[in-house]
Write a structure and sequence with these properties.
two-stranded antiparallel ribbon, globular, 13% strand, alpha+beta
Length: 91
C-alpha cells in the first residue's frame, strides 16, 4: 500500500482563511491553493473538472480577467502573474 496516500495533513484554519479571497463578491481560492489542500497538482485538478463536469457545480470555477489578475498582483494577494502558473483560473 502506498503510504503517501495515507498521510494526514492538518491545516490551521487561519492558514486556510489567508488563502481565501473575495472576487466578484464571491469567496474563492486559487486553484493552486485548493490543489495543495487536496495534495494534487493544480493542472490535475483542472483536468478533473474538465473531464467530470457533472461532479462540480456550474459556478465552481471561473477565470480571472486580466484586470482582476493585475489587481491581485498589485495588492500582493499573489506575488506575480507567473505565480498563477500561466493560468488565470480561480476555483
Amino acid at each position: 500500500m502506498n503510504e503517501s496516500k495515507n498521510k494526514l495533513i492538518i491545516y490551521d484554519s487561519s492558514a486556510i482563511q489567508r488563502k481565501i479571497y473575495t472576487i466578484r463578491d464571491t469567496q474563492v481560492m486559487l486553484d493552486r491553493d485548493l490543489a495543495e489542500l487536496y495534495q494534487v497538482k493544480a493542472i490535475r485538478l483542472r483536468e478533473q473538472i474538465k473531464r467530470n463536469p457533472k461532479r462540480f457545480p456550474p459556478d465552481f470555477m471561473f477565470q480571472l480577467t486580466e484586470d482582476e489578475t493585475n489587481l491581485m498582483v498589485s495588492q500582493n494577494a499573489i506575488p506575480s502573474k507567473k505565480h498563477l502558473g500561466g493560468y488565470r483560473t480561480i476555483m
